[in-house]
Specification:
Layout (H helix, E strand, L loop, with lengths): L5 E5 L3 H12 L3 E6 L3 H11 L3 E3 L2 H5 L6 E4 L6 H10 L3 E5 L6 H13 L4 E4 L6 H11 L6 E9 L19 H16 L7 E8 L5 E9 L5 E7 L8 E5 L2 E5 L7 E6 L5 E4 L7 H13 L10 H17 L5 H6 L1
Helix pairs in contact: 1-8, 4-5, 5-9, 7-9
The structure holds NADP nicotinamide-adenine-dinucleotide phosphate.
Length: 331
């Protein structure tokens, strides 16, 4: 891998702007911006001081300065963009959820395998310092065996049937957009294990996407987890991890700035984050570190675990009979 890793940023919307800021703080170099419109790509590139602007994804892939593509477009195009990039031998950091369903993700991982390329789901929260500390506390057995996790992520989005979050054609809905955070946290704590059983409910709104969803997950050995998500109600977005010897509290865990360890009979320990920049710098650093070490996946967000989480979301949707239009066309 070259000393300076060249990034292409795909999509010019909300999250790409935030990721660009994090990338800069991580010392990364964006060499190309790509949009569906050449003009928007040019405008984005000139504002950010990025050398090349493309109005065509395939053309961007011919740019030899591009080593890794960051995909900040809606979920509905993650598979197409990732597979194209991987076939062009570019590494990929793909926004969460990295696909609409597990079948799509399987195809993406196969492309990464076939082309010996790096691929990672951009589950940025896992790389924040308080979450790194939580993994250490768990590994050190400070709270004993984990028995129960409760985690929520939900917000009250302004209703707009044409927005990404409410549009089924763009993979809208609470579960894929927000519910993936508690599910990913739960999976991280239970070591990437697949749940043995799931009981869930989703309530679909007028555009046909889920607006409120809850799931109870059974991990065996009397270990359980509860996750809730919403796009029409502001939840308390904390995570609690309860073990046989204590508990961990992560307030507002998606943007975790702190985590608290409460051991029975011990003083509380707090981890206050040295959260630098906007937090997206940590995942960018991880990608560049993996590329320099010649890895094809990150040990913190491995391929198999992204797939297990995707399968869990498929199972939750299946229990409520919720399919996306692209899946109905494929059926
Ligand atoms: N990690 C996080 O914290 C976080 C936060 C928010 C969102 N996300 C994820 O990031 C992705 C994008 O979310 P966002 O909120 O940034 O959405 P957004 O503001 O709508 O931006 C997405 C961008 O993708 C491009 N795009 C839109 N529709 C497209 C299509 N059909 N085909 C190809 N490109 C299209 C557009 O850029 P052009 O018009 O320039 O092509 C658009 O500006 C989603 O998967 C979401 O889950 C992650």
């Amino acid at each position: 891998m070259k000393d300076t890793i060249g990034w292409a940023l795909a999509g010019t919307g909300g999250i790409t702007n935030k990721f660009f800021e994090g990338l800069q703080a991580a010392g990364g170099r964006a060499v190309a911006a790509v949009s569906r419109s050449k003009e928007r790509a040019r405008e984005f590139a000139s504002k950010k001081g990025i050398e090349n602007a493309y109005g065509d994804f395939d053309q961007m892939l011919d740019d030899a300065d591009v080593d890794v593509v960051y995909i900040g477009a809606p979920h509905s195009v993650h598979k197409e963009m990732s597979v194209k990039a991987l076939k062009a031998k570019k590494a990929v950091l793909c926004e969460k959820p990295c696909a609409i369903n597990a079948d799509e993700l399987q195809a993406m991982l196969q492309a990464a395998r076939d082309n010996n390329c790096f691929f990672m789901e951009a589950m940025w929260t896992r790389y924040l310092p308080p979450l790194v500390k939580v993994r250490q506390w768990l590994a050190q057995g400070f709270i004993g065996q984990v028995k129960m996790i409760q985690a929520n992520f939900g917000f009250n989005a302004a209703f707009n049937p044409h927005s990404r979050i409410f549009d089924p054609c763009l993979g809208g809905g609470a579960l894929l957009d927000a519910g993936i955070y508690p599910l990913s946290l739960i999976s991280m704590v239970y070591g990437g294990q697949k749940p043995l059983g799931i009981a869930s409910r989703m309530f679909l709104g007028e555009t046909g996407v889920d607006e409120v969803t809850s799931a109870v997950l059974d991990y065996g050995e009397s270990r359980i987890a509860c996750a809730s998500t919403a796009i029409r109600a502001q939840l308390v977005n904390d995570a609690w991890i309860y073990g046989t010897k204590g508990k961990i509290h992560i307030p507002n865990f998606v943007w975790a700035k702190t985590a608290k360890l409460l051991q029975e009979g011990e003083n509380d320990q707090h981890c206050e984050s040295e959260f630098i920049a906007n937090g997206y710098n940590y995942e960018a650093q991880e990608v560049m570190q993996c590329l320099r070490e010649g890895k094809t996946e990150s040990a913190v967000m491995p391929w198999d675990e992204s797939l297990t989480i995707m399968e869990t979301m498929d199972a939750i949707r299946a229990q409520s009979g919720f399919r996306y239009p692209c899946e109905q066309a494929a059926a």
